Amino acid sequence: MIRYSVQCSKGHVFDEWFDNMADYDVKSADHAIACPDCGDTHVSKALMAPSIGKSNGARELPPPACGTPSACGGCPMAGHVHG
Ligand SMILES: [Zn+2]
């Protein structure tokens, strides 16, 4: 058994048990999953983790500002390290 957080088209999130991942696909396609709040059967899997890793995002972050080659030679800390 596997538990998914399911969200209906109206935004209600509820937990539902399934035999396996394919069981969810079959039941969601058959509209066999009904929201307990409003009875909506157009449901989708809600995010299961409270925090999602940002490394998997579709957008790429712009390069950092310190990436310019000219900034590397002008560091004020260079040569001032006392053992
Ligand atoms: Zn609902």
In brief, what are we looking at here?
It contains one helix and three strands, in the order ββαβ. With 83 residues, it is α+β, with helices and mostly antiparallel strands. The chain has a three-stranded antiparallel beta sheet.
Low-confidence stretches: none
Global outline: elongated
Largest sheet: 3 strands, antiparallel
Give the N-terminus to C-terminus distance in angstroms: 60 Å
> What's the multimeric state?
single chain
Mean pLDDT: 78
Query: Order of strands side by side in the largest beta sheet?
Result: 2-1-3
Radius of gyration: 24 Å
What pattern of helices and strands is seen along the backbone? EEHE
Main structural class:
alpha+beta
Number of strands: 3
Query: Approximately what portion of the residues adopt beta-strand conformation?
Result: 15-25%
- Figure out the total of helices: 1
Describe the structure.
With 83 residues, the chain is an alpha+beta fold. It has a domain at 1-48. The protein has 1 helix and 3 strands; from the N terminus they run ββαβ. It has one helix spanning 21-29, and strands at residues 2-8, 13-18, 43-45. The chain has a 3-stranded antiparallel sheet with strand order 2-1-3. A hairpin with a 4-residue loop joins strand 1 and strand 2 (13-18). The chain is elongated and about 70 Å long. The model has no long low-confidence stretch (mean pLDDT 78). Bound molecules: zinc ion. Residues 8, 10, 12, 35, 37-38, 40 line the site of zinc ion.
